Fold each of these.
Amino acid sequence: MRKPLLKLFLTVSGALTLGILLFSQEKKNSCLECHLQLEEKLAAPARSYPHDIHANYGLLCSACHGGNPDKEDMDEAKDKTFKGTPGRKEIPLLCASCHSNANYMRQYNPRLRVDQLELYLTSHHGRAYQKGDLKAAVCTDCHGVHGIQAASMPQSLTFAWNLAKTCGQCHSDANLMKPYGLSSQQEEDYRASVHARALYEKKDLSAPTCNDCHGNHGAAPPEVASVANVCRQCHPSPAELFSRSPHKSAFDEAGISECEACHGHHRIAPPSDEMLAGGKEDTCSQCHDTDSNPYRLWSDLREKFHDLNRRLDSLSSRVEAVRKKGVEVSEARFELQQAKSSFVEARNLVHGLSANEVEKRLEESLATMSKVEDLAAAAEKEAKLRKTGLVVATAFLFLLALAILLKARQLSRRRDLKG
Amino acid sequence: MKEKDERLRDSGNKHSVFPAGGKKPKTQELLAYLQERFKWEGIVDLARKKTVPEHPYSFWTYFGGLCLFLFVIQVVTGALLLLYYVPTVDKAHESIIFVMGQVRFGWLVRSVHSWSANILIGAIFIHMFSTFLLKGYRRPREITWVTGFFLLLIFMAFGFSGYLLPWNELSFFATRVGTDILGQVPIVGPALKTFFLGGPEVSGATLSRFYWFHIVVLPVAALVFLGIHLYLIQVQGISRPIGVKPEKIREIPFFPDFFLRDAAVWFSVLALIGVLCVFFPWEIGEKADPFAPTPIGIRPEWYFTFMFTTLKLVPAHILGLEGEKVALLAFAFAGLLWMLIPYWDKKASRDQRNLFTTAVGIVVIIYITAMTLITYLFPRL
């Protein structure tokens, strides 16, 4: 009789202790408790918020919405400080009330910048917002609501892999873009670009996405004069060569944007020899007559590029084939890499428009390729020799083994006959 | 001169190696000169009288000779590799590239060394399990079995130490993982790990020590144990399996019958090694970078994988003890029992069949095979 009572006592007291412990460790949040029991529209924010970066730092709903989450009763919880859902117009200032406060932000993340609002107001979005355009993007459009994550988190709307989609929410909407005279093709174009391929296929997080060229909070399209400065952040060498080339002053005079004139924007294709004079993607003919001397000169160089590229591909295949046959070709591979480097350098030198320099580098590549050809030929000879040697040696060894076996059998038979 | 030849021929020495007539006098003179000094009558007599039992399971007896042949290949090719190999962090990998690419037939020597080392360990396993199942360890061959077991350990140590010598990425990290496991051995583990590594991490000191083990310590140990092993086989002869009817066993001369068959096996295996070397030359791999992250799917040489996978599969804790340590102790205990089987399999010593030990042997073979296969079939286990 005593034992069931003891069990009941222990169970109840254990549950109570556990409950008290749990209760005492968590802050009360009556907002979540009620909203989780409401219809989907009102429950969704309560479900997402526990995963929000602000919740992780211990901020409650009241930090943005006001009210008193300690109160059980809804009327008491929605006290004088309760703000309800902030309107789009209020959002930038609401966020900035903390994010522009250096003293406040320092306690959570001292490295985080506090000039987001300032930058935002200089952006196209911010300028439209200041004009009272409520369709202009505000903080929540890019960062989300209730489930906000740090930009470094892969689930974040502003993480590199997700950013094109986030920007595309508005910029791919033709109806929304029409009044601004903006194309809605940018996201689609970007996804077809060499940059997107690096980001999505090679998973290269250093590959540029929207904010790398347009800026983050101060997002705006680069002006014609500053396009080259944007590109040179990642491509300093061609930009430097271009600045020293005759194209620089000519482009400036004509008001042509530098890199963009040949490489385009958003849908930036991998650079190709075909972009040179007379190629399938000829960009020179945009400005030059096809019978002009510079055009003919670069058309000849394009042919050279084409031939050398073909030769490099063929050499690579040769070296790889002989490597698969088991011959050690590290020297040939090293030289091949040298030849490829010279070839890539020659391609890059095109931006400087010095045909002599380009030809010199192509000659270097050619000379190295000759070395590789000799090494590949020697390796192929070696592979052939090995196979011939193998056939002869294997045949000899098997015949020897067979002869030995026959001899052993013959000796055994002779002994049996004698025995 | 003629008189001397006739005197030698007619000396009546039954151990004389030169038959009556047929040989050129000068050769006979030289042989007589050498015989007088080396006194090889005993050896010749042993070779003439030595016989080997031939029975339905004779096939397995050729693996012992094959192991010896492969060991000789190891010594010869290893000695040739010493001409170019430099055991330093800066030059080890480069010297292997040089051997494989620049030295005439260097690729062949190194590939033969690596391939035959792996085939040797496979042959040792087959030799050991066939001896186990045929109960060749039973009285009076207990010491032959024990020395054979030590030879297996020595050759596995050869493999482990040799694997690091090319100083490539895979071998570097496999050594790191292997020595970390060694460090888990209770009580002596950390000291052993430091001793083998020459410090807390795999470094140039480790390379020097592994090289020292590979070309000095282990060869000496192998020669000592091999010497005892072969001596005992010569003295006691090859065992006859239990349960084979006497009419199915016949004695055949060791020389030339058995020796010739042995040689036929050796040459066939040599041809096979040649084919492997030409079509699958041993990889050099990328040079080890101690600061690089451990590559995915790192694993030791195939003959260690059954232990490696077991350690991966054991629960983190067994009876409150660390799982890995329990597994290592279990391996050590199982190895000890395996080595001492001639002393606890009393039935076999009385020439009686023992189904229990046969079952143990089969279970061990299945276990090792299954664990090895799991390693390769499920690399991301």
Note: The first strand of chain B starts at residue 51 and ends at 54.
Amino acid sequence: MIRVGIPRALLYYQYCSGWKTFFERLGAEVVVSEPTNKVILNSGVSRAVADTCLPVKILLGHLISLIGDCDYIFVPAITSLGEKTYNCSKIIGLPNIARALIPESPVILDPEINLEKGRYHLYYNIYKTGHHFTSNPFRIEKAVQAALESHSAYRRKMSDSGITRIQAISGNEDKDFGCTPGKENSMRIAVIGHPYVLYDDYVNHNLISKLRSMKARVFVPEMVPEAMLDAATTRLAGQAHWSFENDIIGAGEYYLEQKIDGIVNLSVFGCGPDSMMVKFLEHRAKELGVAFLPLSIDEHSSEGALLSRLEAFIDMAKRRERVCV
Amino acid sequence: MRVGFPHFSTAYVIAKAVANKLGALGHELIIPPPMTQKTLDLGVKYSPAEACLPYKLTLGSLIEACELGADVLIQARGTGICRLGYYARGQEQMLHDLGYDAHFVNLDVSEHKIQSLMQLVRDLTHDAPLSRIISAVFWGLNKLFALDKIEKVVQKTRAVETEKGEANQIYHEAINAVDEAADRKEVRKITKEYIDRLNKVPINHTANPLRVGIFGEIYVVIEPFANMDIEIELGKLGVEAHRTMTLSRWVKYSLFLNYLGINEWRKVHQLAMPYLDHDIGGDGWESVGEKVLYARNGYDGVVHIAPFTCMPEIVAQNIMQSTREDIPVFVLISDEQMGKQGMLTRLEAFVDLLEFRRRRNGKTI
């Protein structure tokens, strides 16, 4: 059986269920790399140029850890997911970076998903990927249909039942996580960030569990339905140029309007899109008088520093509430 | 209305020429002062900490223009991939917060470039006749082409002149002379005169200077303040700097020839193909290709200039390391923390390395 490796990094958190279904329907076995750990992080960091952002370094580490376990590695170049919206250059050039920095890796499957280039380009790229497993185009089409269904089910599951990606992936629907009835008095904190930082517990030093242990109710971008995200983004920043900025700015604006008690923005040092967008959000939070904590992490950030900043933030937000009431 | 724009190398010459040609239409053109440490400090103070250097510098320059009274600001806009797409939005908000009542007009630099330029000039001139706008734009470009022609000669002369700094002095005089020229004939005359003067600069005839190619992100490559005058410094060390990217080339192709299906980067993109097969925004694709091109053309080394955290250039850097074509690369990351002395020490070491490499390969200097 052909084995396809999917690195548990970057866009995995967005599309894991669709990708898995696609390859499984084509008769391949899917190998997902281990959750990030020190070895993975260090091996990734050692390959890339120092200025590269942390998520890309981690992806490289996951790729290295998959060597020997699979025949193909799946690293798509997701360029554009809509009219006049693009992704960050690093996501667009991902397979090329991987190939240049890890010459010993297995064959990299790198379909370019660029909806700006039209339907034919998309079909061609999907067929090109599926062709490694079967030469029957109808079988590939069926796999695509199944993948789409599985992806939208995954997305719906998150926004309907208010759970995070980690829970949706693992099937653990711990209701205590988000909006819990009966705990109206506890603080409501929105954690805004890209899924690959929010749910990689090694990278963010268990930020979400830390907040929960401080008796805060945590809200994440996935709990907002997609249409609301789009509307909120357009309100705050106009026509969005970057596909994944909805997570930051749309969710931020949405929660600000819900009069949340505080917003924690978790971003990675050197993230190009975030560096511009967070400013809009910060501005808006200031206008509305909502506590806003921008946290920037990289491979050197320490758990202790993060914890003290979080504690200080929660104390501040509590005091603010008391003063306002 | 008082129209301002961010300083960008010699771009102010075009703006001035176009404005003069269009005459008094109730506007005044505010020319921002050349970039200084003050511009940078202003920009850094009011920008998001992690924004890239061109954002900070252009914001600083726009603030300076506002201080001089500008109320309409011209800023570049792009769709997509790199941060440029949000320059105008972020800067407009910041200027508003600072209390300047400035209105932004955007020049689209990624698609519909010529339409956007025409629209911009039309908006600013209250629908002046098209023929007059076209002739004014061409008049501005005429000056730009003259300047870049002179600069090419300056780049060659700098490396071999016996008295360092002379070519540069002449270049500065040339910029002023071209800026003040009143008609095409005079521009031609000035161009010829200054090129003659440059050719008469005493040079070391036996020198066979090292040749270095410069490429990277367009703003920091072209604006001397952003790259700490690296071309002049290379010239002082006796190295000939070559740069493909110039304002006139950008204008010539992006505004005109691209519409005829001629792509100036076709060859560069082809050379980059084995390593990077699609556009990644900004100038990343071109950077990879240019490194290969310079290596193939037998240059001694290349200088890659990128703003700190520039997304396309980081991708290019990662990919560039593993090209088969081998050539020493000097990476200059420019941001507000950069210091000239540090850069000079590295540059000297780099030039020594190139000399050593050339000697080892059996060529004489």
Note: The two ends of chain B are 57 Å apart (CA to CA).
